[in-house]
Automatic annotation (TrEMBL):
InterPro entries reported in the protein's UniProt record: Claudin (IPR006187), Claudin_CS (IPR017974), PMP22/EMP/MP20/Claudin (IPR004031)
Cell location: Cell junction, Tight junction; Cell membrane
Species in which this protein is naturally found: Serinus canaria
Annotated protein name in UniProt: Claudin
Matches recorded under PANTHER family: CLAUDIN
GO cellular component entries: bicellular tight junction; plasma membrane
Domain of life, source organism: Eukaryota
Amino acid sequence: MALVYQPVMQLSGILVSLLGWVLSCLTTYLPQWKNLNLELNELEIWTMGLWQACVVQEEGGMQCKDFDSFLALPPELRISRILMFFSNGSGLLGLLLSGFGLDCLKIGERQQEQKKRLLLFGGILFWISGITAIVPVSWVAHATVQEFWDENIPDIVPRWDFGEALFVGWLAGFCLILGGSLLNCTICSTEVHPSSVHYAVAEQLHRKGAFAFFTAM
């Protein structure tokens, strides 16, 4: 039962990590990091992402404009771009490494130590990817809260609010950290690999056969 449980846990870990990586890539390009509702014109909703600002109109759909300069962005958006790229890259590398380390993969079946190392490195990369996905969305959320409650801004001025991309980013980071934890838990377990079990059983049968042969003599 335990021998079946370990590959299932590995597959669960890599699938959860894959989901987190897809959500992290989606968060990077979604333009809804911040939302701005204009009370004077309720038919328009302004949104801001890492790459562009958009206006959503009830009748005209969505119109977006890319940011002209990277240096002109607020510091939280500049750093968020870099961290999200790093998160996506480390998540992709983690998927590749941990994929080759799965027990259900027949490649390298006799090199269990190397496969364990691949799973370990993959799990650590998922942790790094999850942390670097949570940090930028949390930083943008913190800056948004500070601006929202800033007493120096007149009440008549519209305030930015949380966008949907922030929640997607938090979910992505949680999935990546959970997936990496599941993979590393399978390495920490002291289960014996099925191939070594088959070898031990065969050796026991061989010894019993030899003992029966000498007893019969």
